[in-house]
Specification:
The structure holds two protein chains of two kinds. Chain A is an alpha/beta fold. Chain A is built from 14 helices and eight strands. Chain B is globular and about 75 Å long. In chain B, the strands form two sheets. Chain B has a seven-stranded mixed sheet with strand order 3-4-5-6-7-8-9, sandwiched between helices. Chain B has two domains: 55 residues, no CATH class; 223 residues, 2-enoyl-CoA Hydratase, Chain A, domain 1 (Alpha-Beta Complex), CATH 3.90.226. The chains are: A alpha/beta, B alpha/beta. Chain A: Keywords: ATP-binding, Cytoplasm, Fatty acid biosynthesis, Fatty acid metabolism, Lipid biosynthesis, Lipid metabolism, Nucleotide-binding, Transferase.
Chain lengths: 316, 280
């Protein structure tokens, strides 16, 4: 069952009408090709209009679209081979943070990402994409392993935040994220980070220190979610649209402010409408980016990584 | 309307007739209610003589406590925040900054300085909670990064005193990236083998805990300080249960293995000195 967001409905209605029209035409043996072509044009126009004028809040909704490709969807679609690796070797295996070695066009990568679930059972298993400390420690273990074997690293970021639970605190959620951020700066291999859905605060940043940080077109990345921002500043959830505007959290905003390195375009209407196209675009960008990064000596790459983040911020 | 006015005589005392203790002469401990002379309180490094409660103090007090003869050189003292996102919530951000600056006399939520501590060179960054909850925006990140650079250049140990609610929302993405900026510099400090002590004071939460505050060679804390990633309210809402007593206190965090030791503020200067001497 497809889920439709409010602004997707008028388009879906027209599409349903087109299907109906074609069906009737076949049944009654009439030629509707002119009318159908005109309707197809209207649909295309409406799509273009809708998706070039999305508000920031609507982008947030798209980034959370339940049909959107998740980390494993990218892995399945772009890797010829993938071996999943589990566990942080200390406490357990965090199902909200997944990873393993994958082969893309004969190049082995370490691929790591937050994983959300599709249905209630999966969502619980994946903890809604909210990792515990062991998730961040697992990610770092895998990154160090990639470094040992000289393999470049890809991270897919898609999280509503690091899990704010009791045990997460006991096991040092803050320390786990902090260590990842610091240690990722010193990784000797190329690191490419892609925000594929939600990039919420420290929970996202904990795997998002890279030579290139890219955002898919319909994603968000900020210090806090619009809902939580609204709760803190306005004392109610009702100002989430304003909060989204104020936070300037879209791919376009973040790129214009120099806080990410690029935007990866999505199929018209969003990545969920065409997995093949969405994932192939990502694959192409990943391979091109790696080629670029391979030309930079390792130490230089580390220093550039540090310098890039060092420039972020506006002070007087 | 008689229930709005007092009928009993002698209870209404006109304001001018009230006898008040001179301002600032006495300090009452908010924890055990003991009243003590402010001078005594200051001599005890702003801790309670009865129950040991550590009053929340700011950068100025820490500089006075740590630097010999209160002599230090402040770094980037005039740096202040821009408003890169034209952020407006119930107030616009520049107005909020101006009002806070006027109220606190501070430029932002951290001050950085270098000087001598028991004759040892040291670089210190200390946060001020009074300034928008000690929140971390571009200025906090930049000043800390530059203080670490100073530490690297002079090969002097770096002391970070955190007291913060986390990242500053009004600078959104920029604030988030300060976690990265500061941690990157700490990676260089770590590589250079220069000691970094992170002192966590009440409270240290959010993006500050998830970056520089937890990256010390030594993560130490003041007694009773609230230390955590998520705030207690958020956790309570997540798990739908009351939190155990002492949850996220410095003692709790030490028991779970994330602090090297807890230090009474009165002993801070000497203990740090001994530590740095052992390392040199």
């Amino acid at each position: 069952m497809k889920t439709l967001l409010e602004f997707e409905k008028p388009i879906a209605d027209l599409e349903a009408k087109l299907v109906e029209m074609k069906k009737l035409a076949v049944e009654n043996n009439v030629d509707v090709s002119a009318a159908a072509a005109s309707l197809e044009n209207s649909i295309e126009d409406l799509k273009r209009e809708t998706f070039s004028n999305l508000t920031r809040w609507q982008r947030v909704l798209l980034s959370r679209h339940p049909d959107r490709p998740y980390t494993f969807d990218y892995i399945e679609n772009i890797c010829d081979e993938f071996i999943e690796i589990f566990g942080d070797r200390t406490v357990g295996d965090d199902k909200a943070m997944v990873g393993g070695f994958g082969k893309i066009d004969n190049q082995t990568f370490m691929i790591i990402g937050q994983q959300k679930g599709r249905n209630t059972k999966q969502r619980q298993k994946r903890n809604f994409g909210m990792p515990n400390p062991e998730g961040y420690r697992k990610a770092l273990r895998l990154m160090k392993m990639a470094e040992k074997f000289g393999k470049p690293i890809i991270t897919f970021i898609d999280t509503p935040g690091a899990f704010p639970g009791l045990e997460a605190e006991e096991r040092g959620q803050g320390e786990a994220i902090a260590r990842n951020i610091r240690d990722m700066f010193m990784l000797k291999v190329p690191v490419i980070c892609v925000i594929i859905g939600e990039g919420a605060s420290g929970g996202a940043l904990g795997i998002a220190i890279g030579d290139r940080v890219l955002m898919l077109e319909n994603t968000w990345y900020s210090v806090i979610s619009p809902e939580n921002c609204s709760t803190i500043l306005w004392r109610t959830w009702n100002f989430k649209e304003q909060a989204a505007e104020a936070l300037k959290l879209t791919a376009k905003d973040m790129f214009e402010n120099g806080l990410v390195d690029g935007i990866i375009p999505e199929p018209l209407g969003g990545a969920h409408l065409d997995y093949a196209l969405a994932t192939q675009t990502v694959k192409k960008v990943l391979l091109e980016t790696l080629e670029e990064l391979n030309n930079i000596p390792s130490r230089e790459r580390i220093l550039q990584r540090i310098e890039k983040f060092g420039k972020m911020g506006v002070v007087i | 309307m008689s229930w709005f006015t007092r009928k009993d005589k002698g209870i209404n005392t006109p304001t001018e007739a009230k006898r008040e203790a001179p301002d600032g002469l006495w300090y009452q401990c908010p924890s055990c209610k003991k009243v003590m002379h402010t001078r005594e309180h200051r001599i005890l490094a702003y801790t309670c003589s009865n129950c040991g409660y550590h009053e929340k103090i700011g950068s100025q007090e820490y500089f006075e406590l740590l630097f010999d003869q209160t002599r230090y050189t402040e770094l980037d003292a005039l740096m202040s925040s821009g408003d890169p996102l034209n952020f407006v919530d119930t107030k616009n951000y520049p107005d909020r900054l101006k009002a806070t600056e006027k109220k606190t006399g501070l430029k932002d939520a951290v001050r950085t300085a270098y000087g001598k501590m028991n004759e040892l060179d040291i670089t210190v960054a200390a946060m001020d909670f009074n300034f928008i909850g000690g929140s971390m925006g571009s200025v906090v990140g930049e000043k800390i990064a530059r203080a670490i650079d100073h530490s690297l250049e002079t090969k002097s140990p770096f002391l970070m005193i955190s007291r913060s609610g986390g990242a500053r929302m009004m600078e959104a993405g920029y604030s988030l990236m300060q976690m990265a900026k500061t941690s990157a510099r700490l990676a260089l400090l770590d590589e250079a083998g220069i000691p970094y002590v992170s002192l966590l004071t009440d409270p240290t939460t959010g993006g500050v805990t998830a970056s520089y505050a937890m990256l010390g060679d030594f993560n130490i804390a003041e007694p009773g300080a609230l230390i955590g990633f998520a705030g207690p309210r958020v956790i309570r809402e997540t798990i739908g249960k009351d939190l155990p007593k002492g949850f996220q206190s410095a003692e709790f965090v030490l028991e779970h293995g994330f602090l090297d030791f807890i230090v009474d503020r009165k002993d801070l200067k000497d203990k740090l000195t001994s530590l740095f001497k052992m390392l040199s």
